[in-house]
Here is the input.
Amino acid sequence: MSEKKSKKSDNSEKAPKKIDEKNGESFEKDVEPDLANDSDEGTVSARKVVYAEIDDEITSIYDKIRNIKAVDVYVVLPKRAAIFQSIINLKILKRKAEKLGKSVYFVTNDKNGTYLATQVGITVYDRSAEGKPSLFSAESSDEKLRITPLKATVNSVEDDTPTRTNERKLSISELLRKNKGGEKTVDVTKLQTPKIKEKKDKPKFVIVAPNRHALIGLVVLSVFVLLTIIYIALPGATIYLTPSASVLEKSVNITLADFQRNKTELDTRPPQMIASYPLSITTKKSLKFVPTGKKFSERGSNASGKITIINTTNQEWPLIPQTRFQTDDGIVFRIPTGVTVPRATNQGAGKVQAFVVADPIDAYGAIVGERGNIEPTKFFLPGLKDDSRSKLYGESAENMSGGVTDYISYISKEDIEAARAKLRADLIKSSIEELRQAVAEKTKLVENSTVYTLLEGDKAVKTGEVKISIADDLEGKELKEFDISGEVSVSGVYYERDAMLEILKNELLLKKSPQKDLIRVNEDSTNYRIFEWDEDRGKIKMTANIKGIEQFAIDPNKENGQRLLNKIRDHIAGKDIESARLYMQNLPEINKVEIQSWPMWAPTIPKLHDNIKFEIRDAMNVK
Here is the structure.
């Protein structure tokens, strides 16, 4: 029995590894002798250790554990294993294993992998110091789950797995020597390891995840090749041309003929003659005017105080009563009585104190009142010459006080004249505005699209005498405001606006260059100069001016435009963009050039004419 057990131990010790070449697995079908449990503890009936390479992806590891019958699978992973690059890999592996009814455990010293596996819920065991895996903890409370550390690759074992015996192993020579002693000969062929039938796995299709770096490199290379093809084969340029534009001005002699007096002549449609219609109105207006005249009332008072008069000359300086002392702000103070200012001595300038009272009105005609309560300041004598004001002047050391503002407004002669002038200007201005309103009302009465316009300009509107009504006894009255009214009669003529513009536009078209297009007529620029007004015949002869804008016609659908664009293509094809821009910019037909090349970094204009496109912009729409 002991010999049989020894044989079994030897066979187990030398059991060959079974290589699953299809799945890339390398595992052992029998347990090596040093994997037996040396203690009295129980063993788990189904467990499996799988070794993974550092670059094994999740699909490779899953294929290794998928066909294993053991429930508990221990995966030995090296440091920096590819599966530890993402926690998603661990989640997928755990979920796939659970679907197979298996429990996955990791054996690794990778700190990052240990952390990620712990987050997912996969138990992790450290590796021993000798480099062999110390797989399982013996601290479990379940006796069946207490497994001693493994020292080598462990394969699936069953309950009848042989255990290591304590007997010494016998070599073949020892066995032969025992046979000479009368024991039964041992058949050496029986000591060979029994062959294990290989299970043929069904062929399976495995999708291997592509390497991220290789995929990125492939994408970058593809983009580079694509851009190279585009740059070489498909360059293009779009050129935006703004034709040169200029202001075109035309003057035309036009006759406005009264419709009633010249109806027969107007029916013949004479050139440059249009119908006009007379219009007269009377404008009345009144306004309230606030007088500017002011005088000091009895309730008001003037400020007063003391000043020191200083004389820097060698002679005494007498001052008469009411001598003025003025500040820089125009406030005037006077001395009620005359004084004599002593001359300057070796001790200094001559000085004398004097009492002064402020005037009701300052030097600019404004009421002083409480404005005279000024702080200490310097005064000059306005009655002296400029060169003498620095020799005799006054200074105050205290504030002036006692000034109270209270005045009465009254109507002065200047107020009446100012009111007349303002009313006259308002009447004339209002009369022209009322004429425009009256013409607008005439337009509303016409059912068709006719628009009437008032003839304006120098001598176009005739103004009658302005009559102003104002009371005769207003001057000097103490009033806060007074009324003034007046009226004026004005007359003018109006005409059909479209008929006038049609004549002016036709003249602009006649003056336009054949190589240019009239792109705009500035109707607001129209102005008139009347040089003859025949009231008896009802005709007004005038010169009308109008402005327009013309630009060079660059139409690809027309012969001249196509010729110019072909000329530009022939000259700029293959040239650098800046040279092409300068060439086109110097053409008299071109005002502005913009070039957009494709690809955008292309330094030159394409050589193929078909790849050069033009777009013509309107000069009026370019900012």
In short: Residues 233-244+554-621 form one domain. The radius of gyration is 59 Å. The first strand starts at residue 17 and ends at 20.
